[in-house]
């Protein structure tokens, strides 16, 4: 079994892959204070929940955008699973080329998303990841990332709204029943939702306007499911895209 780990700014998401099947996914809040023992204990519990033990783990691959967490998390993998994990980064073959001004600045999560999308759906593609930041990356038919866009995630924008205003409360990020809000909380939810949805659609439309070929729009990320059924501009929502990408990258570099 392969354990794929996506270390993001908000959550660490683990996927247990048995062959091509994703047999379990789990989330841990990203905190730099967690020790390797704490991470190891949580991973052991998650394995048990899925009916596995550490002995069942053949290898581990990690895509991380949070360097300060890597030392303790990597140490937990070595200590509790007896594996030195593969890290998505320089020197690892991904099957994806990057034709950008600074290829080394491409986040490991975006790279894995694009690899997963290209292997699963072919190119050309616009890959959208709804995370702490929202990223758009264009992958052409040859598997080359040629353009990208980064903006705030909806939860990040919402936190700024209630964090910088004295009387606005924290609200759940959800699709409102109506834009005709009648209270403070529903007004915030409607404003955040429709403002963000409009931005997504306008961004996709601009990619279509500037790229002279048809492409598939593939979305992923935890908050993507909030929007997937409210726009015709997203063709596919795939919550497991990053795990598919890491599995494909692992196969290219299997030890």
TrEMBL record:
ATP binds at residues 6-13, 132. Substrate binds at residues 107-110, 184. The keyword Cell division does not apply. It is found in: Cytoplasm. Its cofactor is NH4(+); K(+). GO terms for molecular function: ATP binding; metal ion binding; pantothenate kinase activity. The keyword Cytoplasm applies. GO terms for cellular component: cytoplasm. A monovalent cation. Ammonium or potassium. It is an enzyme of class 2 (transferase). The active site is at 109 (proton acceptor). Its EC number is 2.7.1.33. It comes from the Bacteria. K(+) binds at residue 129. It catalyses: (R)-pantothenate + ATP = (R)-4'-phosphopantothenate + ADP + H(+). Pathway: Cofactor biosynthesis; coenzyme A biosynthesis; CoA from (R)-pantothenate: step 1/5. One of its GO terms (biological process) is coenzyme A biosynthetic process. InterPro entries: ATPase_NBD (IPR043129), Type_III_PanK (IPR004619). It holds the Pfam family Pan_kinase. Catalyzes the phosphorylation of pantothenate (Pan), the first step in CoA biosynthesis. Belongs to the type III pantothenate kinase family. NCBIfam families: baf, PRK13318.1-4, PRK13321.1. Homodimer. This is Type III pantothenate kinase. It comes from Bifidobacterium samirii. The gene is coaX.
């Amino acid at each position: 079994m392969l354990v794929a780990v996506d270390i993001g700014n908000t959550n660490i998401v683990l996927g247990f892959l048995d062959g091509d099947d994703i047999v379990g996914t789990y989330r841990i809040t990203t905190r730099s204070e967690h020790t390797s023992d704490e991470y190891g204990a949580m991973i052991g519990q998650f394995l048990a929940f899925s009916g596995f033990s550490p002995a069942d783990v053949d290898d581990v691959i990690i895509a991380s955008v949070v360097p300060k967490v890597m030392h303790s998390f990597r140490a937990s993998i070595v200590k509790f699973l007896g594996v030195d994990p593969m890290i998505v980064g320089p020197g690892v073959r991904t099957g994806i080329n990057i034709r950008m001004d600074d290829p080394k600045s491409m986040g490991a999560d975006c790279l894995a998303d694009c690899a997963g999308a290209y292997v699963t759906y072919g190119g050309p593609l616009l890959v959208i990841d709804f995370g702490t930041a929202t990223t758009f990356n264009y992958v052409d038919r040859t598997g080359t990332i040629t353009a990208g866009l980064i903006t705030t995630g909806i939860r990040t924008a919402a936190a700024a709204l209630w964090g910088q205003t004295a009387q606005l409360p924290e609200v759940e990020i959800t699709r409102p029943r109506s834009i005709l809000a009648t209270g403070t909380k529903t007004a915030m939810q409607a404003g955040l939702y429709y403002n963000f949805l409009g931005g997504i659609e306008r961004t996709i439309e601009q990619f279509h306007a500037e790229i002279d070929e048809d492409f598939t729009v593939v979305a992923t990320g935890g908050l993507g499911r909030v929007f997937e059924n409210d726009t015709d501009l997203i063709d596919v929502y795939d919550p497991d895209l990053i795990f598919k990408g890491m599995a494909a990258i692992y196969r290219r570099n299997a030890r």
